[in-house]
Fold each of these.
Amino acid sequence: MTQSVKVLSAGSMRHAFPAIIGAFGQMTGIGISLSLGPAGLLRERIEAGEAFHLFASANMAHPRRLASLGITEEPVCFARNRLCVIARADLGLTTENFLDILSDPQVKIGTSTPGDDPSGDYAFEVFDLVEAQHPGMGVALKARARQLVGGRNSPPTPPGKSGGYLITDGEADLFLSYYSNARLLEADPAFRVVEIPAEFSPKVEYGLGLYKGAPDDAIELRDFLLSDQGQEILKEAGFSRVG
């Protein structure tokens, strides 16, 4: 048995992993060492030689690249999420007026950073889907989007700040976010959490990459995340089950 399973995980799993660590540890006695960050930057750290046992990415592309390099086994999808919008309540955003509000040049659009963080990639995929139906509009949205978090040079989230701090601080009027994070603001009257129209909503899948030659404890953790118990914990944290 290893002393602990070293996990590098997408930051959007931060609300799920405490319960996973607790349940898995109680069941097996195995500890988990957890490091959170934007999945693209974590992949770069792995490629640079950082030790790990399991990589939990917010997309399938990063663990697939590691598998192609022979660093990990072929990845498996362990959770699904969806992108939505956190907006100032007084902005009046709805799913129905989504394009009208976003296309207003006075509205400040916030996203994470494409390339470094899959959340930013998914946000820009929304704009690509808009562009396919409304030529010129998606390009304009990309040009106006403020890449505020998740990048290698992004400032850290201030201690004690909730997920909507970029809006309350005036950096954005709305922010494209994972539902697993946004749901925590649904009861706050200062914000509105709005679904993106289905035709512009990207497919959000999370992938697990197991280090080739990982110890049995790491394999056990991977299997736990895919088990009914693990999937129920992820569901309670705002993700959708796989299977």
Amino acid sequence: MADAKTPNWKPRTRAVHGGTKRSQYGEVSEAIFLTQGFVYDSAEAAEARFVETGPDEYIYARYGNPTVAMFEERIAGLEGAEAAFATASGMAAVNGALVSMLRAGDHVVSARALFGSCLYILEEVLTRYGVEVSFVDGTDLDQWQAAIRPETKAVFFESISNPTLEVIDIAAVSRLAHAVGALVIVDNVFATPVFQDTMGLGADVVIYSATKHIDGQGRCLGGVILGSHDYINKTVIPYMKHTGGAMSPFNAWVMLKALETMDLRCRAQAEGALRIATALEGQAGLTRVIYPGLASHPQHGLAMAQMEKGGTMIAMEIAGGQAAAFRFLNALETIIISNNLGDAKSIITHPATTTHQRLSDAQKQRLGISPGLVRLSVGLEDPDDLIADLLAGLAAAVGA
């Protein structure tokens, strides 16, 4: 299989053509190699391949697959990373990126505002095996500086936190971490590869749940870890191939096709999100609207310096707590209640009782996850229809 030419393309072109490899049949759409294993011409060839695998040589689907490799090359080129490893889910990517590099006695500093499953890995999994984890307010650089020590191995944070949309200063935190030789690992799901050059800002490793904006249509689980050749090949792959967190070829094919339209989808969703957030600000029944693209956002200036647009996610707090929030959600007709995000369909959830329900009340309060907080992922519907739906929901919440 011959590599396609890869000139100095712009991001949208890389998202369509990057990493493409065609078989002898010259197919237009990328081929799905739906196979768990590969055949060798001889016993000697099998022996040689297990010693050193060439660029178009594979051993077992858990180690690598041609369709998965195309997705890895394409997303790496889009992100500006040297290499990538595609995983079975976004959480497999978070777990793999951290656990593959850490040992008992290592120290990690993390922002405390994280998705609930990310918190579980840091609070429960890493500490269970002797890794020390320090949590900080991610928006407070003084806390980062105080927590990072000469022996710190890594820092971890979401570039935009889930669900309260705090924005972390990637360049500043990276400078503090790199001063002691620590690796900067960033979950960039909310900012997306479309709107933010995370590695250009200083991150060493970038993680995505491909389930979100990359697929963007609610079909498949997937994740990806992006970093240097050494980190991916010498740290991540030895861990992942033995623990089994690889992406399936079919899901990789879905992700490849989805990358072709990701830029268009995310831009339309972000434009809709700004219109919706602007329309909601000041509405009766809302105590606050949180969107990085609004001037009222506490880190609006930083967000606009780091990102091209404000993203596709909005958080809002319904006056009247959980009861009012549930009335609001149950009155919506166009927007669906689910816990995914980054989808073509607009999706809303109540974090305190879903994605972050395992946290204690004290943790929720510290993170700003109030009983009235809801998280909205803006889809591709007409923004006017979504605004009308949301206003009707607010009327139901206030009128009860």
Amino acid sequence: MKNKQRKVKHVLAAYEEAFCESELTKAHEDSLLDRAITGYRVKSIWCGPVLEVEAYPYWEIPQKKRVKTDKNSSKAQEKLNEKNRQKHVVRLLNTNFRPLHDLYMTYTYSDKYVPKDYEQAKKDMSNLIKRMKYWLKKQEKYADFELKYLYTTEHTRNGEKVRAHHHMVTNFPNREVAEALWNSGRASSDRLEDSDFGFKKLGEYLVKEKGEKTRKGYTPSRNLEKHTKVTVSDTKLTRRRAAKIATEEIGAQEIFEKMYKNYQFKQMNVSFSDYVGGAYLYVQMKRIDTPINRKRRIINDDEDDQRN
């Protein structure tokens, strides 16, 4: 019996960069059923209660993505980098923090303590985190508490210098202490609020600042998990079904909710390419949980409810 040769599946490494056109043209529509497309790879990314699904084509032969050489190329790449940075921060927040429990802190400076530069402002936050850890260590019930945080330092806006301040998301268990430990000005706090897309709005806000010194734009604690789980499948979606979803010939909600039990469809973005066939589907879903009564206080500051 002859051995069947295994077919190699080729996927564009930078598929998000390739599929950047949002308007469906006749050429895009004709390319959806390109015979060179073998199928669709479906990447599922679980981040806490939020599920992201990325579906994109693969081929039996390698595809070379042609790149525009005009001046708009660098701008497009910069925009893509910013989008991916926002995605990464949102995923960190969705995976590691809880609504109505963990904190969103804002730390500002009084005139006496305004830092002379960005480096000094960052040092102020490092010292604050040290005080947080020291306080936790001194409390018997929090001695083994694993502090998690992600903060940003804002010192410019639209290229112009502004009064330095900080935003932090943290699981620090005492709201009043989290404010009191800041000794350089005012501190305010709120319980985290999520939406159908988890902490998407907050994550995008945190990394809105751009600049040479803030290229990364955020500082996470080393113990933050990147995501709960990631799976990849080449059998969940056929070329023909993907084409029908992209052209709205069939409803995406029913298909994806059947594909992912206990998750509710929230939104889908479809992108096309001028260089390769097929479409890129980006779907956002939310786990179906028992509704929370947001009108009542869920957690007391000193409740011994830790999460490692």
Amino acid sequence: MSKDTCSWHPETALVHGGTSRSQWGETSEALFLTQGFVYNSAEQAEARFLNQDPGFQYSRFSNPTVSMFEERMALLEGAPVARATATGMAAVTAAILSQVSAGDHVVAAKALFGSCRYIVEDLCPRFGIACTLVDGRDLAAWKAAVRPNTKAFFLESPTNPTLEVVDIAAVADIAHNAGARLVVDNVFATPMLQKPLKLGADVVVYSATKHIDGQGRCLGGVVLCDQEFLDKHLQVFIRQTGPSLSPFNAWVLLKGLETLPIRVERQTASAGKIATFLEGHSAIARVNYPGSPNHPQADICARQMLGGSTMVAFEVKGGKEAAFKALNRLGIIKISNNLGDAKSLVTHPSTTTHHRLTEEARLELGITQGILRLSVGLEHADDLIADLAEALG
């Protein structure tokens, strides 16, 4: 990464960063749909596998198109290195499991996406890795959970689906004092609105399926970290277990990155207007939006985020019946468990993304039967507000 490249603003980096042109000098990033690569000699093949000769070996390990995506993401995040994966969950799994072994201990926030919580709460213990779940907002709980064998902390902020916010810098200090690494899922904030590495996190993960693609086209994930973590843990795990991102999906994600700043800026502005509308609606019991002064952790939001995010969580009075009625009356906003799309999407977490949790566990996280999670798209904010007003009756 050159000094000139590092001085670029994000908007410039997301158009030009990491580009590697072939001998044909193409304008758009080249798409290398190949499984393997040809060597000039047997000696070169040997040197390539010994990492003595730069180049590519096999697309499960690396690929020119995938490498461009990784370099561009590292430039955006301000990370030394990045490794792409087939999905966001592959990124989370690799980031956690690559660094722990049987006998180790992981501390994680309770407020996690359902599949992320499965990794730490169900999968890790099956392989002898203990896990403690804590209220991510309670710094004393993080401290109390530390054991001599604690190796990793894991959190997401803002949280899925209620948009609670965790003090990343404070949790990072606790982790480092315990000799552990902090892994942060930064999907809801996007790399445009929050920089966990600058706040002290050691590893950042994304589901690139969300805002990075931004148009509901493909799956992908990415892990961002320093060179030491890559060399000691992540690289061999990804190489040997094979959660590889396809070159085609990497190409789609590269094109998505070009418009990421514009999309997130527009979606965040609309989300703020919608949150204000919902806060004043008689059918709504509560609204959680990180850009609102009424957010429970508004001071932390202002300190660590550059904007309120593209997501809004709100509770419809009347529980599941009222929430379903509102969902079924929507016209523009579509019912879907995805997020970060150009289209506005809404879901009922209790019966979709968090249905695996017990009712008791959901209520502990504030996921009532009336809670809806709205991902704001690129439609005009006034049209979305009118759609919600009609749905809420």
